[in-house]
Amino acid sequence: MSCWNSLISGYTLHGLHDEVVRCFGYMQDEGFLPDVITFSCILKACGNMRSLEKGKQIHIISKGFLEKSIELGNSLVGMYAKCGDLERAQEVLNELPVRDILSWSALIGGYTQQGKGHEAMICFDQMICKGLSPNAVTYASILKACSQTRDIKKGKQIHDEIVKRGFLEKNLVLGSALVDMYAKCGMLAKAQEVFDELVVRDVVTWNALISGYSQNKQGHEALEC
Q1: Per-residue model confidence as pLDDT tens digits over 48-90
Q2: From the CB of residue 126, how many other CB atoms can be counted at a distance below 10 Å?
Q3: Global pTM?
C-alpha cells in the first residue's frame, strides 16, 4: 500500500493528474484499499482536472476518514472549489470537525476564481473571527477579491498587514497581486510605487502594471512600461 501511495503522491506533486487517476484505478484492481493519503491525492487531481463527478464519488467513499484527517477535509473543500461547486465547498467546510487556514484559503480562492469577490470577503472575515491568521495564499486571494470589488480600503489594510508580517519580501505572487489590486482600483501611482519597491519582479508583475495603465487609458505609460 505504501508503494502505491508513494507513486500516487509523486504524480500529485508533479501535477500529473491523469497518472494519479490511472494509478488509483490500478491500485483498486489489485485489491488495495485507499487510505487518507490516497484519497487526498485523488481529490487534488479531481480538482485540478475539474472532474466534479469523480470527485463526488471519492467524497462518498472517503466519508469514514473525514473525522480523522484535516488534510482530507481540506482536499475536499479544494476539490469542490476548483470545480466551481462553491455551495458544496461551503457545506463541506461547515461540516468539518476541524478547520485550519488551508480549509478557509481553499474556499476563499474558489470564490475569487469564480469572480465572487464579495463572498470571498465575507469568508475571509469569518476566518479572522475564528482566530486564524492568513498565510500568503490567503492574502493573494483576498487581494484578488479587493480587485474584483474595487475595495481599495480593504486592499490597503491587507497591504499593511502583508508588510508588517514580512511576506512581501519573500513572495513574488503577493507583489504581483498588490500591483494588480492598486491598478484595477485606478490607483496607478500607488501600483507603480509598489512595483518599484519590489525586490524581484517577473512577467506577471510587469503585466499587472501594463494592464493597469492600458485599462485606465494611459496608453503612453503602458508602452513605456
Answers
A1: 999 999 999 999 999 888 888 899 999 999 999 999 999 999 9
A2: 14
A3: 0.87
